[in-house]
Amino acid sequence: KRLITPWLCCEFDAQADVRRAAKEAWRSAFPNAAKDAEVLVHCRDELVRGLAEVALLPPPQKCGDADADAAAALDHERSVAAALQAAAHVVRAVPAAHAAALRPLLDDELLAAETWRRFGGAKAAGVRAAAYALAQACLEAAWAKPEGDALHRLSVLLLDGLGEKEPSCHRALWPPLLLLRAEPAAVRAALAPKHVIARLKALLRAGCHGAAHTVYHALLPLVAMLPDELLLPPTGGGGGGGAARLAPAAELLAATW
Q: How far is the C-alpha of 112 from the C-alpha of 128, rounded, in Å?
């Protein structure tokens, strides 16, 4: 049980050879999905608490040596990202039948509202991308879906992600963002309409920061989630036979060219 957290984190390490060795060893020990889920459930206390400890570890203090500080910060970012990716794997791998045993641990240790706020504001792109991956796993697994304030913070995290400039973050962001279509009330509560349009316009005008293939495939489904006030032309106030006013979302058409 003491090995389970570092072992699983190694499966999501930034170094390919570390990932490969960890995955091969894991497959040797637990050769199928049933065994995988069995060990995750058996070690759930140590695993979830261990992942939360790594993911929530504060950044290292600076020692004054620029190279040493940069190396320590990079190691910390990679450790946090690996822990979040490992947590996403746990959510996906554990069947709903074991939700009663695992859900309280996840809620208490890792999926609280403050967690989403913290990771959404991370400076490291790898940490933000891993947070989006964990959000996707939670939204896909009905038993792990956050509720109440935690769901609100998760929705804010994903909608704020529209301001991302890293292509890798956009690839991780859009799948869970579109899963919010199943949570229209949460989207409405988290949405800042003017900010969403402004962020989408800036994103499109910047060529989607190299993530155009990802963004353009998901743009229409996202726009369909916007409230009517952004999709319909404003009413009243335009008398005198003047030109018809367009819906606010129409500004996105010009930004795509």
A: 16
Task: Give the integer Cα–Cα distance in Å for 140 and 212.
Answer: 24
Contacts of 200 (CB under 8 A, 6+ apart): 162, 219, 222, 252, 255
Task: Indicate the burial class of 109 (C-beta count within 10 angstroms; 0-12, 13-18, 19 or more).
Answer: buried
What are the phi and psi torsion angles at 212 (to 5°)?
A: -60, -40
Six-digit token string for 77: 């970012």
Cβ neighbours for 30, distance < 8 A, ≥ 6 positions apart: 36, 38, 39
235 class by beta-carbon count within 10 Å (0-12 exposed, 13-18 middle, 19+ buried): exposed
Residue 182: name the closest of 151, 209, 213 by CA. 151
Give 183-237 pLDDT, tens digit per residue.
Answer: 888 888 888 777 888 888 899 888 888 888 888 888 888 888 888 888 788 776 5
Q: What's the longest Cα–Cα distance across the chain?
A: 77
Structure token pair of residue 158: 């994903």
Please give the full DSSP string across 13-44, using - where no structure is assigned.
-SSHHHHHHHHHHHHHHS-SHHHHHHHHHHTH
Please tell me the pTM assigned to this model: 0.87
